[in-house]
Amino acid sequence: MSAEYPKHPFLLHVDEVVATLGVNIEKGLSPEQVNEAQEKYPPNEFEVSKSITWYIILSKQVFNAMILVLIFAMGLSFGIGDYIEGVVLAIVVVVNVTIGFYQEFRAEKRMDALRALSSPSATVLRDGKTQVVPNAQVVPGDIVLLKMGDTVPADLRIYEAMNLSCDEQSLTGESVPADKSIEADILVPGSDQIATSADQVGVGDRLNIAYATTIVRKGRGRGIVVFTGMKTAVGEIAASTTKRKRKPGRSLNYKKYGMKQPFVGASKRTWDAIGKFLGLTEGTPLQRKLAALAYYLFGCAVILAIIVFGAHHFVLTGEVVIYAVSLGIAIIPESLVAVLTITMVVAVTVMRKANVVVRDLSALEALGGVTNICSDKTGTLTQGAMIVRKAWLPMNHTYTVHDSRSPSDPTQGRVGYAATMEVDEKEDDSRCDYDRERSAATLRFDLPEPKEKIPLPATAPEVDAVLTPALRAFLLSAALCNLATVRYDREESEWQVTGEPTEIALQVFAHRFELGKKSLEREGWKQVGEFPFDSSIKRMSVVYNAPQGGASQVFPNDRSVVFTKGAVERILDLCSHLGFGTSSQVLTDELREEVLKQMNHLASQGQRVLGIAYREWEKGRFVMPHSYGGSGSDSDIAIRAEVEQGLTLLGLAGIYDPPRRETKASIAECATAGIRVHMLTGDHPETAKAIAKEVGIIPRNMGIWPEAVARAAVLKATDFDRMTKEEIDRLPELPLVIARCAPETKSRMIDALRRRHAFMAMTGDGVNDAPSLARADVGIAMGSGSDVAKGASKIVLTDDQFNSIVSAIRQGRRMFDNIQKFILHLLTSNVGEVILLVAGLGFRDSTGLAVFPISPLEVLWINMVTSSFPAFGLGREEAAPDVMRRPPHDKKRGIFTDQIIVDMLVYGTMMGGLTMVSFCIVIWGANDGRLGVECNKTYSDACIPVFRARACVFAELTWMILLSAWEFKSLRRSVFRLDPDDESRFPLFKDLYSNRFLFWAVIIGGLSVFPAVYLPYVSTELFKHTGISWEWAVSVAFTLLFVVGIEAWKFVKRRLQLLQQTPVRHDEIFNQGEEGLGPSFKKSMTFSSFKEWASFSLKDSTNGFRSRSRSRSRPLPQQPDGDSSGAPDGLDGGVNATRAV
């Protein structure tokens, strides 16, 4: 519920908003109005990210498909009076449910700790008095007072702003704070038209609105609360994460879809409800596959029971029912749920140590099937902070920052210097109105639309930067014309910064040369005037008196100096000269074009370009006129105009949000693993494109792609949103970069990927990422991000690093492989037991009843004890060396690939056949086929042969299952040489002992056979077998024969390449993480193209690049400076696109 406005408040004048809400702008709301509003509107809170109650978590564990089948089997056991089996199955159910409940409940509690539980306060004007109230008590109509550092409590219509700037990064993805205004005449971005409806202007361009949860970075202001709680921009995004969209074809509208639709829609809705309860239509692929497996096995158990009943002519005596129950128990892997859950618990623990918090246990296995990652840029691929990357000083002096790991630490990295050489290139003389190209009246440094080709200036070899007089003057201006602070906190042992991000970047750059503002002021620089940043003129100036004396002084000490910074073209309009000292020149039109050329070059690399200028005050010491009040009056404008004229341009600063160091390598590893990375960002298209090229999402030379692919690779959100579903589906490739993204754009991208049968993960940290985090198959939020984003995600990265995502995917794939191994291990034993028991239907005693060759409790012991611990061990196996060089697993087939199914049948048949032969050898080979009477129930002398045969089969089956666990460490390689790179002559013991849990589980399990066979009462009354002697030789012989059979089948698979996994299909032209500098060798080549590739190869040898044909696991050789960013522009670091012919 919210106030009714004739139009969105950002389109209304302040008087109209005041009239609608009935508030006195001078006094605020009266107590009566506040009480009335609190009754009318809900509290100013977000109704998302609530904790899941314990009984919901418990119900999810109980109504698991496999658990339901076990409960049914338990009830049947109690129903026929077999209480021992019933109690054992009850224990199995309790253990499975307890383990799953405990882990998921702990994960939810960890997320409760991550959520921000404290509610900030707001300063409001009520009844003419300033009050501080909790955010939840703010109501529409409240007058809120804002100052630097405040968190905006609700959506405000700003009516008073003094240099007010808000950080809206979490909402819009824009890393530069937005400067707020009070005007209602908002222009439609990219035109002169005044907006008349809300859909014409995006959230980030509504400059008279301050949004809830954003932070005031500078200035002060006042605003009227227009929306609260779930009606705010953040609240609407948060609400969208909880909305459930109905699947297609579920409508009951017969008018729109025909008379059959109500019946079709109702039947599909019914199936959805049943499938949801049974776990067949919701959950991750593994969950759905295991649910289907449970019901399939249950169906097989019913069929086998019918076969048992039919074999006894449907005379259902107690022994017949027990035999049927034995078959049912044999076919169900009772320990599967427990093994799966514990394996996930171990994986979650490992992930937590790697700074990954798993909120939803099922999300971890889903990571192994991820085919696409849709990532935000700011704070995810990049560091979320600004840094000066390049500084250009007239004429042709370029300073570049390398190896900066922390944007706020001036001691990190180094500054290199290179002289830029002239290039004789003709450029289009057309001029752009760079100010109009900004989408918001904020401190946006000129980002022009790129021309067809921006000439790449040639550079001389780079050397370490030296502090020259020109550079000193540039740094003095950048440090003093600056409101940011940079200081080293000795207690925290880290650098602390405050202020606006671009100013912090300049201040840190000055600190690299020990010319920070505080140190300069201690030397004697004294501020005597300030002309604050004004969004209408996009510049800021300060006036300082130079200190007296000083050997390093570059300015006269008897004069004041004016320092100015701002948008390049605005600064150039005020300049008469450029350069410093002896290199100072009059600013001619040719030099102006040269400066603009340099600006274009920096802007094309995704940098925001800032101009730095100065002026010596000719009148000596400057005295700020008393009439100046900074109010924007005509007299103030005249005073400022007098100061800001005749400036000398000192240089340009290229500032950008740098990629994280690990991002490019992580994207390259994703490409190796068959995973494609998409960047979906709210930032400027050129900035997004430049960062995408730098981290390897798109090639630096887009011309190596076909025109249609290159055109679709980078799109603006407005272009993507205008496309219909059919047009999107016709694209040769979905966009790899989408700029100026709105939440709806990201959701449309997720839907487009899903229509192409992709299994995607979405990473993000802002409120604007929450809808796509919720809709993606796996939502991954950043720990430093908003609570809304964390509440919508399944996984949270506490260190915010993109490479943690790759680690999570690697862990997901490792776990998927291990799940396949222990499922094969468990189901192989089930197949063997079923074959053995079905064959046992032919073993009839004198009464005509079938004699089971293995008793029900023997089956339960093998399934729950013998198989479980080796299965746990298989779940702890380390990742295979090639785990990130395989494609994502097929989500349709899931864990049950052709190889798993065929192996299960082959090994299970061998196991069942060999144990059946062993039983026959003991009964018919040594005891003339004597099967006794009622040997399924009681022990007697007549039953000794049967009991000895069962003991032989029990020992043999136990050892087979245990040794198969070692064999299944690799599904294709021999257990005698698991590691093909191991050069030792006999690495068997070393390989087996590498997984100590599995090693001792097999050893102890093998030894446990002896007490199980010989313990009095336990052997005869429970297991229905007795001690043996010569039969041990039969068990050992057939166990070894089983191992030989496994090795033979593996050899056949390797030799004939049967059931081999398809390798990752790499693009022949460009793979993400590469440079993508030129065409593939497969394209036609001319002599000039040969020279071009030869030059790239030469640069490869000097810059440490490598051929694509080499293994990615090999470390890259480092450049002399230790960082690839020291290479010439367009060639800085990464994996080269060159391939072996």
Automatic annotation (TrEMBL):
Cation-transporting P-type ATPase N-terminal domain location: 8-82
Keywords: ATP-binding, Cell membrane, Ion transport, Magnesium, Membrane, Metal-binding, Nucleotide-binding, Potassium, Potassium transport, Sodium, Sodium transport, Translocase, Transmembrane, Transmembrane helix, Transport
GO cellular component: a single term: plasma membrane
GO MF entries: ATP binding; ATP hydrolysis activity; metal ion binding; P-type sodium transporter activity
Chief localisation class: membrane
Keyword Transport: yes
EC number(s) from the headed UniProt entry: 7.2.2.3
UniProt enzyme class: translocase
Source species, domain of life: Eukaryota
SMART domains: Cation_ATPase_N (SM00831)
Location within or outside the cell: Cell membrane
Biological-process GO terms, alphabetical: potassium ion transport
Protein's recorded name: P-type Na(+) transporter
Organism per entry: Sodiomyces alkalinus (strain CBS 110278 / VKM F-3762 / F11)
Record lineage: Eukaryota, Fungi, Dikarya, Ascomycota, Pezizomycotina
